[in-house]
Amino acid sequence: MIDQTVFQNKTAAYYTLGxxxxxAETSTIGKSLAEHGIRKARQGERADICxxxxxxxxxxxDKKCRQAIRxxxxxxxxxxxxxxxxxxxxxxxxVARIEGVDLVLGTGQKPDxxxxxxxxxxxxxxxxxxxxxxxxxxxxxxxSCSADDRTRHFxxxxxxxxxxxxxxxxxxxxxxSRNGTIASLVAQAKGVAEKGGKEIVLAGVNIGDxxxxxxxxxxxxxxxxxxxxxxxxxxxxxxxxxxxTDEAIDFTADSKRFAxxxxxxxxxxxxxxxxxxxxxxxxxxFRHKIEKVKAVIPHAFIGVDVIVxxxxxxxxxxxxxxxxxEGLDISRLHVFSYSERPGTQALNIEYKVDPKIKHKRSQLxxxxxxxxxxxxxxxxxxxxxxxLFEHTRKGDMMYGFTExxxxxxxxxxxxxxxxxxxxxxxxxxxxxSALLAKTI
Length: 440
Fold this sequence. Notes:
Layout: E1 11-16, H1 20-34, E2 39-40, E3 49-54, H2 59-75, E4 80-85, H3 86-90, H4 92-96, E5 103-105, H5 113-123, E6 129-131, E7 145-147, E8 152-156, E9 158-159, H6 170-174, E10 178-179, H7 182-194, E11 199-203, H8 218-225, E12 233-236, H9 246-254, E13 261-263, H10 271-277, H11 283-296, E14 301-308, H12 315-326, E15 332-337, H13 355-378, E16 384-394, E17 397-402, E18 407-411, E19 420-428, E20 435-439
Parallel strand pairs: 1-2, 1-3, 3-4, 4-5, 5-6, 8-11, 11-12, 13-14, 14-15, 18-20
Antiparallel strand pairs: 7-8, 9-10, 16-17, 16-19, 17-18, 19-20
């Protein structure tokens, strides 16, 4: 039996590394502990409990997690240190050996953190106990929704992945593809609206795979959410090109609330490399999706992920990627350097790219991204837009984003915060980080 008095006046500090999905889940953990009387520690306050939700998408992410765990342990001496998330699932014993760690929880145990915390408090501090389960046994969908420090909320609609791309460990860290029901997600969206939330980002590992565990469809989810009153806009986070259907694109174009904003991972512009990556599309399909979006939503923002230096990517194949992306009408690139991940199929590919060449390729793509991003912004100067203004303030100016994800700067007005306002877009601000906007 849990003795609730043990947790009275206890404080917890929460740390999240990695994706927005992790942020949503950390928020849910915080709410769960708060229900048991555990207060969130204030800035600079020494906490009794530290929860660290980790990422493991690259080798660098693992390193950052280790550094963060050690730093947090020093900042909160004597606190119970609980580490969970993808790094904890994939390398639990390694995490358990880090000085200061008391408990390592796998992905399947993350939603029940309070139960394990109760056991930990009764047992007392000690070196790294591990409670985890195999990825094939992680099948439960745990709902999560969080607000960031600006104005948007992140609604977890899906988790896990069945794809097993050759370079990726996410299926081993997150388990099989699964999702919440449309009814439950609509209820959460209504809850956000009731609290005054204006924007929701649909988050997940492979959100286009929505429906695997409930027999519903991603398009049906979009249609249901579009009818929730009070939400001004939704954004669709990263979605595979083979899973964003033409019907979903057409619906977004005509919807009341879905923003003209897409994030579609390419990973490589070479069909040969895509096969080595075990991706489920080719460049012809990807080009079709971009052209389809632009045909029905000409002003849409399209962000694209690319991985450089993966095993098997010769100079000639990278050149194919560069030429392919140059010919796409996209708005921005998110460039990642390939990182060796233990247990992945990519390690069986012989040709290995030198780190210096990876860096050079990254720079070429980052330069191309800057050109496309600048051109996208400048093409909208002088046009009208609708902006959701944030709390973010710098001096006498405040910031916000248009529906198609253009960052704007305007004179600060407290009454604008978390409201949607029509504006006239001007030229660049002084730092070229946003377009100047005049409310109309």
